[in-house]
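Sorry to interrupt, but I need a hand with the structure work. Could you add the entry underneath, on a fresh line?
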Amino acid sequence: MKADWCANRRVFLRVVGTSVAAAPLLACSSAVPEPDAVGQVDAGLTSSYPVGSLEAIGNLAVALGHDAEGFYALTLTCTHQGCNIATRGAVSGTGIVCGCHGATFDANGHMTGGPARADLTHFAVKIDAATGAITIDGATRVAADVRTPA
């Protein structure tokens, strides 16, 4: 009877030990977090954003950028664990850094350093031709190379 108990205990410990060791690997394979829902965001006027700028819009998990091709918007929801980079990170025309775990992205949202697992999602930008007012449409995803001219 004691021999059976010891054998079963060894099997139990081997299974538990394997499960515990694999737990971090399982956590890392989870899905990339969805961007925070931001809806329609008034982002000010085109004149407020010089070429080469990228700015978080308040504490919302969205940023507006302006490059030589035009205006673009992207999520600031980190693709590692969903942190809001607008409130816990740094955003500038030279790039984006998540303050939670150190993931880095270039100014167009392409991942440049882990632990993030994907690029940042881009959203449609609308500009009122008469006033220059900018609206970010957080419900409409676009490709990373899409720009809206001023």
